[in-house]
Design goal:
8-stranded parallel barrel; 307 residues; 2 domains; Glyco_hydro18_cat; alpha/beta
C-alpha cells in the first residue's frame, strides 16, 4: 500500500471512529432524557377533555381522579368534579376518550383516594372486596354498572393520604394477581406518596415490589421539596430511588396555585433540577398536578423536551 493510500485509509478510519463516537453520545443523551410526563385529570371541569389531553402529545400517563369513597362497607363512588355525573351513568361516554388515549399509546389509570374523601381498608377481606370491585368496574372484569363504560383502564393509582396504613399491600397483590390470572393482561400500579420517607400510608404497599411507577409528591412538604435546597432535596430523592419500584417520578404542581408550596418554575426545573436527577437509575420523569393548572400555565409544553 502506498503512503497516499495509507493516509486515505487512516482518514477513513478516523471518520468512522468519529461517527461511532457521535452515535454513542446520541444514545447516551437519549437515555438521559428518556423520561415522560404523567398528569392527573378529572378534578376541574374547566380543564381540557380527556381526549384532547391525550392528543396533546405531552403525556405518557393520564391519571383519572378520584374514586374517593370505598372500603369499610361503603359503596364506592367516583368524583370527576363536574366533568360528568357517575351516579346517573353520565361518565360512560368517557370510554370513547379512554380508547382514543390508549390508541395514541397513552396509559390511562384510575386514582383511588386523594386528599379528601372517605376511604380505608378494615381487613384483608375488605381489601379483596375492593380489588374485586375495581377489577369488575374499571379493569378487565364485567359489571352492569361500570362508571366509565366498557373501556378497560390500564391500571390503578394509589393516592392514599388518609384512612390508615393497613392492607394496602393486600389490595396491590390482589389487583396484580387478577390481571395475571383472569385475562393475562398486566394491571399497572402506581403510587403517589408524599416526599417525607417512608410514606405514612403507602409504604407497606410500595414495599411489595409490585408498583410500576411511584410519582412522589415533592410539594406541600417543605422539608424535602426543591425549595429546601439541593442537599435536602437530593437526600429525599435518593431515598425514594431505593424503593422496590420500576420508576420514580418527580411530582410537582403545574402552577403556584396548584399547591400550597413546592412550585418550581419551568426554567429552573429544566436547567437546575432535572440535570441533578435524570441520570438516576430509576428516573421516570415528572408527574404534574394537575391538568387544569397545566392548561393555564403551559408547564408541560415548557418542560417536555427536557424531561
Amino acid at each position: 500500500m502506498t503512503a497516499k493510500n495509507q493516509n486515505m485509509a487512516a482518514r477513513e478510519l478516523t471518520r468512522l471512529h468519529l461517527q461511532l463516537v457521535a452515535i454513542v453520545l446520541v444514545a447516551i443523551l437519549a437515555t438521559c432524557h428518556a423520561g415522560s410526563i404523567a398528569v392527573y385529570w378529572g378534578q376541574n371541569d374547566g380543564e381540557s377533555s380527556l381526549s384532547d389531553t391525550c392528543a396533546s402529545g405531552n403525556y405518557k400517563f393520564v391519571v383519572i381522579a378520584f374514586v374517593y369513597k370505598f372500603g369499610k362497607g361503603q359503596t364506592p363512588e367516583l368524583n370527576l368534579a363536574g366533568h360528568c355525573d357517575p351516579s346517573s351513568g353520565g361518565c360512560k361516554c368517557l370510554s370513547k376518550d379512554i380508547r382514543s388515549c390508549q390508541r395514541r399509546g397513552v396509559k390511562v389509570l384510575l386514582s383511588i383516594g386523594g386528599a379528601d374523601g372517605s376511604y380505608g381498608l378494615a381487613s384483608e377481606r375488605d381489601a379483596r372486596e375492593v380489588a374485586e370491585y375495581l377489577w369488575n368496574n374499571y379493569l378487565g372484569g364485567n359489571s352492569s354498572s361500570r362508571p366509565l363504560g366498557d373501556a378497560v383502564l390500564d391500571g390503578v393509582d394509589f393516592d392514599i393520604e388518609r384512612g390508615g396504613a393497613k392492607y394496602w399491600d393486600v389490595l396491590a397483590r390482589e389487583l396484580k394477581d387478577m390481571g395475571k390470572e383472569k385475562d393475562g393482561n398486566a394491571v399497572l400500579l402506581s403510587a403517589a406518596p408524599q416526599c417525607p420517607f417512608p410514606d405514612e400510608w403507602d409504604d407497606g404497599a410500595i414495599k411489595t415490589g409490585l408498583f410500576d411507577f411511584v410519582w412522589v409528591q415533592f410539594y406541600n412538604n417543605p422539608p424535602c421539596q426543591v425549595s429546601a435546597g439541593p442537599r435536602a432535596f437530593l437526600h429525599a430523592w435518593k431515598r425514594w430511588q431505593s424503593v422496590p419500584a420500576g420508576q420514580i417520578f418527580l411530582g410537582l404542581p403545574a402552577s403556584k396555585s396548584a399547591a400550597g408550596t413546592g412550585f418550581v418554575p419551568a426554567g429552573k426545573l429544566t436547567s437546575q433540577v432535572l440535570p441533578l436527577i435524570r441520570r438516576s437509575r430509576k428516573y421516570g420523569g415528572v408527574m404534574l398536578w394537575a391538568k387544569f393548572y397545566d392548561d393555564h400555565t403551559g408547564y408541560s409544553d415548557a418542560i417536555k423536551r427536557h424531561v
